[in-house]
Amino acid sequence: MFDLFLNSFNMLSHGLIGYIVPFLFVLTIVVFFHELGHFLVARWAGVKVLTFSLGFGPELFGFNDRHGTRWKVSAIPLGGYVKFFGDDSEASTPSTETLAGMTAEEREGSFHHKKVGPRAAIVAAGPFANFLLAIVIFTCLFTFFGKPSTSARVDKVEVGSAAAAAGFQPGDVVTAIDAKPIASFVEMQRYVSMRAGEKLTFTVKRGTGSVQLTGTPQLRETKDPFGNVHKTGVLGLTRETTAGEATTERVDPATALWLGVKETWFVIDQTLSYVTNIFRGRASADQIGGPIRIAQISGQVATLGIIPLLHLAAVLSISIGLLNLFPVPLLDGGHLLFYAAEVVRGRPLSDRAQEYGFRVGLVLVLMLMVFAFYNDFHQVPFLRNLFG
After folding, report:
1. 105: left (phi > 0), else alpha (psi -120 to 50), else beta?
2. Model-wide pTM > 0.70
3. Hey, which residues are catalytic here?
4. DSSP string over 46-101
5. Are 336 and 120 in contact (CB under 8 A)?
6. Which of 23, 49, 253, 378 could lock onto 295 through a cystine, CB 3.0 to 4.6 A?
7. Banded model confidence at residue 378, pLDDT cuts 50, 70, 90
8. What are the phi and psi torsion angles at 201 (to 5°)?
């Protein structure tokens, strides 16, 4: 019995040590910039900021700046928040009693007494900061490390695959998919992976000419180098890279910035396509992960070096920015939805309507968290082995 406990403890501690440091590194960067976006625009709009917190729960340490804002690190490192003057909670829900008792001077610094434009700008600044962070990270990676490139040449066509049915042949080079230029084999894989079940048109260079092929990627389970299982769209094409074929193209800062913007938009497009495909039945929701899955991936990617880890931070930043824009009360998108209703109606929603909205939002967010944790326990190896 003691041996079983000791083995389980060793598995758990090994998993935690390997995951926790990279996870905190990535998540802290993403959360800090998200909240910094809210903070900077709030200061610009003249709103008094009471608290800037990395994490939730009891404070571990912190300090007060000259404007009276409490900057702190809290015990539960699963997010963060900025609390404004007049807020009743970390979710920026209004305190009706506090707002009603404010003096004219206090209202000048109150978030909820600002016009709808500044309030919307403050709320949208968080997700915008996430997208901007991703662009900056991608731009720096392209500037200092170049753009990896391997032509989208086909070396093997799997028998009985979607590619074989489409008429692909060894030696073909894919130059475009659905009229969108394709510069590398990896770019083609990424495009195809999120479009299982969709009919795609491929522009292919064959010999000295060009042909049009039509194929539909099949949804398959694949494993990455770390053994993680993913369900993605697959054509059945293989690229065999020989020594010297994989090149890194040096780019100037302006080109790197443009590539950073394109990469950020690519991740946004892929994420939205995945969510859409879940509702259309073309993708599995079991790929949605929570903090444990993110920690696992962070630990695995960290073994490859700082560049892949920064790339992961950029992707996670985009994901958090998009998630917060969903029109769910408690999230930034929910607040923006309320402000849109306020513009249409000419006055804010009633306190009761907002309260019910926040309750519904809380239930939806909790359901998503429970679902994500459920996926985590089924897909993270050391937890599956520990409790399986």
Report:
1. alpha
2. yes
3. 35
4. TPPEEEEEEEEEEEEEEEE-TTS-EEEEEEEEEEEEEEETTBSSTT--B-HHHHHT
5. yes
6. 23
7. low
8. -105, 125
